[in-house]
Q: What sequence folds into this?
């Protein structure tokens, strides 16, 4: 069996595997590295264990079938425990390959990873195309690699972090390898594309800013608009792609030149008359004006995710968003005026949450008809300004990235509201999602982002579940409640979940339900919620994912 120069791995997010239809996104970072390696004369392959829904043992077996000189893991924080176990299993089986990690979590938590996981030999800091290619070349030639900028490693028991690397020239990169596109496209009906890298924002909670600071160069870099549209046209011709999700953190760069970059991409799409395209991307509200919104709609943009985060001006200032609530409202009105749907980035539970902010946020969401998930909280990653802020206020509860996200102290009343809502979500609503994950993705798949009517209806049903529950929780902590109040609300919630299940069964063509919602115990869940609200033992918004067992 021929030995690869490099095997690039997206590890399984969950150690016991996951439902294969869940969130099958193309691993763009690995795809760019793969293309760069091949252009530089190295043999490489991507193993996406997450898309394949592999368990840890299955992943190890697949790796053993693909011997390589260098193994590179792309690391998301939730998958870090899997990476640790995989690296250890490979070493125990006698694998002698150099094992390297990269990505946001690896970059921001490099020191901790190298201290806690001896089976990891090195970490790439920042973008990986140039540094990882240099590492592979050095390993192939058995030459020194520990002097490369942008690398971290152990030496004599100590973690060494080299000087920062210079950011790559985005126009000098090859197009990403699309070997996995057929799998993802078949499930989602869209392809991802990057028109730029980075974001010019300075939001305190954002790990992107911290990631960009680890290398030298501008925090936002746009690709040549002509090359972006060339890639889109090629994907349309070779794979029949008409639906594209721009996965860069921000469609716009800073200032007039950043706006011009988006304008030029839109004009390039329009001038080529590529036919019907359906586009989605991410931006800040201050990037939107009527002229650019009209042009984006003409080019094919149907849906924009805007990081609103909060409807409270004081919270926006604390987040250093650099945007006013008035600007947010104006952008929403402009996008709706030209016919572009809006997906709001929203963090209703955050370090600054109070009863009042929850009420204001709910009113804002209802006013504009937005339907974000409410049972999630802001998470703090290593290296972010918010981590420093919380530490300076003695509110940070540090967690190893192998165990969970950093937490922060909040009012016990707010924590109890969150935990009650989260418990309901995990115990009942997430069970509905898990049981019908394949059917939900089938409902979500559409020929256009703005033609997901059945999925939008389902999203509204789920949002109403959480919204009405949160309203009840707010009312109870303000005016008092009894156990019977909670039983009544949970019973109503159960009826709504039955309706949501019926919607999924009907739209997906199932003969009958596979989840017996009627068997859910109202009194058991109500008892747990009552205990949470009465005892108020929580002081943080703890992460509820099962890290080790799932």
A:
């Amino acid at each position: 069996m021929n030995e690869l120069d490099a095997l690039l791995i997206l590890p399984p997010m969950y150690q016991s595997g996951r439902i294969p239809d869940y969130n099958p996104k193309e691993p763009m970072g690995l795809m760019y590295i793969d293309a760069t390696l091949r252009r530089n004369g190295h043999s490489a392959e991507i193993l996406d264990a997450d898309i394949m829904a592999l368990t840890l043992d299955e992943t190890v077996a697949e790796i053993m079938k693909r011997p390589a000189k260098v193994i590179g893991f792309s690391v998301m924080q939730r998958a870090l425990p899997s990476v640790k176990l995989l690296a250890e299993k490979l070493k125990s089986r006698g694998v002698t390959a150099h094992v390297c990690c990269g990505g946001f979590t690896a970059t921001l938590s490099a020191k901790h990873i190298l201290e806690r996981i001896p089976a990891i030999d090195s970490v790439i800091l920042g973008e990986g195309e140039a540094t990882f290619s240099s590492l592979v070349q050095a390993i192939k030639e058995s030459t020194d690699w520990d002097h490369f900028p942008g690398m971290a490693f152990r030496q004599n028991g100590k973690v060494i972090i080299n000087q920062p690397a210079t950011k790559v020239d985005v126009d000098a990169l090859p197009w990403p390898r699309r070997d996995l596109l057929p799998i993802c496209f078949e499930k989602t009906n869209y392809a991802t594309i990057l028109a730029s890298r980075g974001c010019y924002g300075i939001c305190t909670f954002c790990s992107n800013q911290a990631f960009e600071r680890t290398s030298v160069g501008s925090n936002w870099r746009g690709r040549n608009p002509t090359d972006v549209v060339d890639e889109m046209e090629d994907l349309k011709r070779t794979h029949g792609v008409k639906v594209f999700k721009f996965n860069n953190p921000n469609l716009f760069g800073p200032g007039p030149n950043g706006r011009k970059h988006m304008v030029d991409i839109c004009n390039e799409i329009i001038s080529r008359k590529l036919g019907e395209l359906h586009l989605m991307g991410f931006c800040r509200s201050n990037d939107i004006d009527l002229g650019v919104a009209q042009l984006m709609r003409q080019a094919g943009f149907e849906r924009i995710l805007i990081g609103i985060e909060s409807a409270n001006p004081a919270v926006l200032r604390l987040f250093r968003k650099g945007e006013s609530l008035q600007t947010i409202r104006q952008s929403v009105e402009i996008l709706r005026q030209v016919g572009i749907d809006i997906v709001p980035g929203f963090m209703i539970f955050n370090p600054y949450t109070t009863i009042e902010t929850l009420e204001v946020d709910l009113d804002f969401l209802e006013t504009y008809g937005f339907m974000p998930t409410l049972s999630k909280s802001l998470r703090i990653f290593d290296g972010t300004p918010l981590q420093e802020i919380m530490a300076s206020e003695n509110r940070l509860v540090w967690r190893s990235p192998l165990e969970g996200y950093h937490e922060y102290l909040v009012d016990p009343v707010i924590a109890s509201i969150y935990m009650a809502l989260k418990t309901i979500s995990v115990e009942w609503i997430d069970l509905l999602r898990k049981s019908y994950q394949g059917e939900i993705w089938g409902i979500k798949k559409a020929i256009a982002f703005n033609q997901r009517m059945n999925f939008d209806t389902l999203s509204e049903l789920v949002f109403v579940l959480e919204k009405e529950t949160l309203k009840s929780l707010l009312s109870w902590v303000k005016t008092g409640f009894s156990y019977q109040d909670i039983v009544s609300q949970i019973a109503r919630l159960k009826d709504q979940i039955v309706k949501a299940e019926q919607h999924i069964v009907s739209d997906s063509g199932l003969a009958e339900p596979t989840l017996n919602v009627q068997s859910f115990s109202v009194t058991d869940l109500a008892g747990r919620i009552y205990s949470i609200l009465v005892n108020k033992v929580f002081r943080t918004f703890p992460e509820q994912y099962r890290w080790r067992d799932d």
Notes: The domain at 189-346 is CATH 3.20.20.70 (TIM Barrel). The first helix runs from residue 28 to 39. The first strand starts at residue 4 and ends at 10. Residues 545-550 have pLDDT under 50 and may be disordered.
